[in-house]
Design brief:
Length: 115
Amino acid sequence: MSEQHTYRVIVRGTWEGLTEQARARLLAEAGEHGMASMRFTEEGSLSYEPAPLKHFSMRYVVVSDAADGEEMAGAIAEDRAQDTLRGLGYGFGELRSTVTDLDTMKINRKSRSRR
């Protein structure tokens, strides 16, 4: 069995070809998708600013084989984002992702000061 790593992935994109209905729904729901809604989850969390309604980001937690690396985690998250956005009827352009491997991330801890 191969080693699994947990990745945090931010998928970014631009709204494109939104219908008037989709635009109206995004504007109406903007309060639910602001800074406070930003969470890394398996199903993803969508965030965007209503003015201007141009860019969005989605945050994902992806667990996959460590051997497949960050590139695969990014591709998995982008696929999830495409499926979600298409399911909601939202038009979007090219997606790009930023991936952090939580299992290899170095944590700098402050040492206790000595007296």
